[in-house]
Amino acid sequence: MAKSFKSEFVKLYKEKLEPYGFKKVKGPQPYFARLVNGEIVHIISYRTSRTNNPGHINFQLCCGIASIYRKRIRFNVTPASNSYCMETMADLMRLRDHYYEISLKNRIFCDVEYTEETMQIVLEKSLIDAKLIIEQLDKYTDMESALKFFMKYNSGTNIIFSEPLSDSFSDEEGLYYLIKDETANLDSIIACQKKDVELVEEDYYKKKYSESLYEYYEDLKTGRQEFLANEELYNEGMKTLQQRKEDNLKMLKEYKVI
Using an 8 Å Cβ cutoff, are 244 and 143 in contact? Predict the structure, then answer.
């Protein structure tokens, strides 16, 4: 009987990730998660895709960060369906630091092909990448640092204040940063974004990204000011955050993460 990649992944990673505080999320999907400092959820999983080689499958580790202030943390869908907030290994390591060459050495976008015969070997080797991912996730342990992650990697969870209580994915984490004492961090977050823009080599795209970042920053400041000036809306936002926190903690208990 042929082995299931998902079952072998879960079996191996359950043992190897447990010392780092990760637990297998209850249910059929291959998610591992841990709650850090009562607010931040680190997630590790994988995605597969077909290749042009008969009998071969592409395998990619992926990871994500969520907070208990998100409208919904989705563990009931596949990692591929969760792609708006799950980054692949290549995405996570794309900046030109010392991880870049390690993660991409002899690979194309960190895809690893496997067959039924090489499945176990590939899984064992992937643990090296898993440790690199955990080292990166360890940098994001509170809401301030987590927001920097969202702005750097998650195009689907950017901060948008124009419709802060709308039922869309676009402002999932943004509502938290309407709290007066926390929004001061926007300057440092934008500064982090500017550093990423500086890594762009082509002048055309560097100019384009810089202009977009400036417009985005101005929209953030304007939206925040309008929100804070509306006492009724602000109070509703704070009430919503508290309700999200309660709902997500309850959900994490149901999924056996905590």
Answer: no
